[in-house]
Design goal:
Number of domains: 2
Shape: flat
Distance between the termini: 50 Å
Low-confidence stretches: 77-87
Largest sheet: none
Order of helices and strands: HHHHH
Strand content: under 5%
Length: 125
């Protein structure tokens, strides 16, 4: 690789690293806030929180604006019993794939209709 190509590649990798760190920071803050469904809360949070925002404050604002995404104080489920963490063994792989595809679409687009479609599919499992 030539020097300009290396510089471009390094810049791309730095951008990816910043994005991954931001995503990880959002996930940590969400988990600390005890969401009812982590995937749903993550999709909403990622659509509203931009890089450079104070993630902690943004999650608290999200919790105040959309309390239905989070468990009430003191009622947080343990990670072992959380239905969003465990997938039933009897669930067909195609249903998991469909639900995952809907979750991915809701996460990437931030579209409310996509989020509702995901939530409906998740509820019907």
């Amino acid at each position: 690789m030539t020097e300009p190509e290396l510089i471009t590649r390094i810049a791309e990798l730095e951008t990816q690293l910043i994005t991954l760190n931001h995503t990880h920071e959002i996930d940590r803050a969400l988990i600390a806030a005890s969401p009812v469904d982590l995937e749903s809360a993550r999709a909403v949070a990622r659509s509203q929180i931009k890089e450079g925002d104070d993630v902690g404050r943004a999650i608290q604002a999200l919790k105040a604006a959309k309390p239905f995404l989070f468990t009430p104080a003191g009622n947080a489920p343990s990670p072992r019993s959380s239905p969003s963490v465990m997938t039933p063994a009897s669930e067909p792989a195609s249903a998991r794939d469909t639900t995952q595809a809907l979750a991915d679409e809701a996460r990437t687009t931030g579209d409310r209709r996509a989020l509702l479609a995901y939530l409906r599919a998740r509820k019907s499992r």
